[in-house]
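Team,

Forwarding the record for the chain on the shared tracking sheet. I've put the sequence and predicted structure together so nobody has to dig through attachments.
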Amino acid sequence: MKNDSGTIIPIRYESGNGEMMVYGGSLLGLFLLSLAVTRFDGIFLLAALAAFGIAYYYAPLTFRRHPPLQVSPEGFYIEGLGLLPWSKIAGIRIYNKAVRNIRNAELYLILHAPIEKAVVREREPESWRRYMYSVWKPVSEGELTVKLEPLAVSPEQLGDVIRARIAEARKTGRA
């Protein structure tokens, strides 16, 4: 990840992440639905709905056109939340968690203001998107966390780029 202050850096989901849940859930749902239809059994129908629900929830992990995160000259864009200008970000922390040697890094963004006031160009997510997987969640009024595990980016590189952009914004007076 190259930190050129004038470019937009899209951060996409890692290839293959979530595909088993989406395609496997869909296939299992179709199989269970066929059993429910042929046997007229409500249990199979409920199981099929659950499998389709799992596939629906994890579907964003297979989306390739819209990256969940973007680092731009204006700020840090988070899909489903909006753009956080560099001037609104007080600092970041990267926490590393490990489960059976699997690294689960999280990026904590500390904001100068509550999330609602810090976000500009907030785009209300479509109603169908609200119940799908999202990489971010609020921790407190002025702090949110971003899961980095499903993304195709090194947590250290992303942290370095964000810190450099925050420092540049402070130096130029945008912070």
